[in-house]
Amino acid sequence: xxxxxxxxxxxxxxxxxxxxxxxxxxxxxxxxxxxxxNRADINRGTFYAHxxxxxxxxxxxxxxxxxxxxxxFESMDYKNFFNDSEKTLKRISExxxxxxxxxxxxxxxxxxxxFVASWKDNLVNFFSGxxxxxxxxxxxxxxxxxINFVINGVADAxxxxxxxxxxxxxxxxxxxxxxIVKRVMTPYL
Length: 189
Known about the structure:
GO molecular function, one term: DNA binding
Order of helices and strands: HHHHHHHHH
Oligomer: single chain
Organism: Bullifex porci
Number of helices: 9
Keywords: DNA-binding
Domain HTH tetR-type: 9-69
Largest sheet: none
Radius of gyration: 19 Å
Shape: elongated
Number of domains: 2
Number of strands: 0
DNA-binding region: 32-51
Helix content: over 70%
């Protein structure tokens, strides 16, 4: 039983890595299951034992990454995030540093733009749902805009780091970004 489980995990990992590496070479819609199984060095039956299509593999990759990031945010003390975001941002940096090249490839692929947009939307929705920021009154739109600005800015800063467009490193990001988060959000706390 255990060896079957390990074999299943190994096969899924090979399939996902093969798809990502192929997506770095050509558009997603040009990748066939044959391409994936050849790159992963597995047979078609193994592929179909786990996935029905290449789209299903991509959706699983994106879903897993989104769920891991969501877990980080849901486990935090959200009431203190905007006062002291460095702790959470350190967790994000650690998460990304565990497999930097994998996440870099994930955002660089064709479908990565929709993944990034979905991830940002989930974060903005998570934070905009926090009750202490949702007081009644005219500040609601301003608060939502500030949250949107901060979350999108933080996400874009991490994307720039992954893509090599930033002078900031993953290690420096939590301190630098938490300072900015606090400055922007202080009027709303």
